[in-house]
Write a structure and sequence with these properties.
By secondary structure, this protein is of the alpha/beta class. Helices cover about 45% and strands about 10% of the residues.
């Protein structure tokens, strides 16, 4: 009888130890899983940017919205641009990491005087407010349409600038907007990445898809242009010093045979060439 009791006791103890060991393993796995989940959530939250875009109710504004859907997006309300004091603009940059300024067809204004005013004086005021709110990176959204009148056999690079008179008001405004943004970059107020985008409306020889731009923007948003890695690989901001501190141009269109514009610079940056 004593022998049977001991056997049952030992057997029960053995089962209990197995249960405890299994429970420990099970709860450890739960703990590790929760820890990894928290890390993943923190990582995702860190990657998400609070982005302000200068317009939502334009084609380019909607195009960018689709490309940046993984981030928290806000837009400048046109009513906020009817300011009496430029200090009123500071509040639109509260809790913002990055600003996208649409310099080409990024407003529904149609009066030429108002268009020029927006792309010069108001652009300056908006960027000044961004600087006062310590926004670190600005994206200037321009267009490759600047160079459509250039002979196709000429190689247009990012170093090109529009230096001839134009009659198209949208092209004029895009050029003016670039120049205003560049002055802030020269003064080292913030980094400006000037993106001259291809055709987002038609299947032309310089078309640009959402897929291509989305991929470019994700890397441009995250990349530290002043990191040791960037210095070792001759990152774009470092190589652009002669063009002015904190300023860099990229030409962005889809890559295919007989494409209109060369995109070697952005393709190298993306590791695609």
């Amino acid at each position: 009888m004593f022998f049977n009791f001991s056997t049952n006791f030992l057997f029960g103890l053995f089962i209990l130890l197995i249960f405890i060991d299994f429970s420990f393993y099970f709860f450890r796995e739960i703990h590790i899983g929760l820890r990894l989940t928290i890390i993943d959530i923190n990582s995702i939250m860190k990657m998400k940017k609070n982005i302000l875009i200068s317009s939502s109710n334009t084609k380019i504004g909607q195009f960018l919205t689709n490309c940046l859907q993984n981030h928290n997006l806000k837009y400048i309300d046109e009513s906020s641009l009817a300011y009496k004091n430029t200090k009123e603009l500071n509040k639109i940059f509260e809790n913002i990491d990055t600003y996208f300024h649409l310099g080409y067809q990024g407003t529904n204004l149609n009066n030429e005087r108002e268009l020029i005013d927006f792309h010069t004086r108001k652009t300056y005021d908006i960027l000044y407010a961004a600087g006062e709110q310590n926004i670190q990176r600005i994206f200037s959204i321009s267009t490759l349409d600047l160079f459509l009148e250039i002979e196709p056999n000429l190689t247009v690079t990012e170093n090109w600038e529009l230096k001839f008179p134009v009659e198209n008001i949208d092209i004029l405004c895009a050029n003016l907007s670039e120049k205003v943004c560049k002055e802030f970059a020269r003064d080292q107020v913030f980094e400006v990445i000037n993106l001259r985008l291809g055709d987002i409306n038609n299947q032309s020889n310089y078309k640009l898809s959402e897929k291509k731009l989305s991929k470019c923007l994700e890397k441009l948003l995250e990349f530290d242009f002043y990191s040791e890695e960037s210095k070792l690989t001759k990152g774009p901001f470092n190589s652009a010093r002669k063009k002015g501190p904190n300023w860099i141009n990229y030409h962005v269109q889809d890559s295919f045979k007989n494409q209109r514009f060369i995109t070697n610079k952005i393709d190298r940056f993306m590791g695609e060439s």
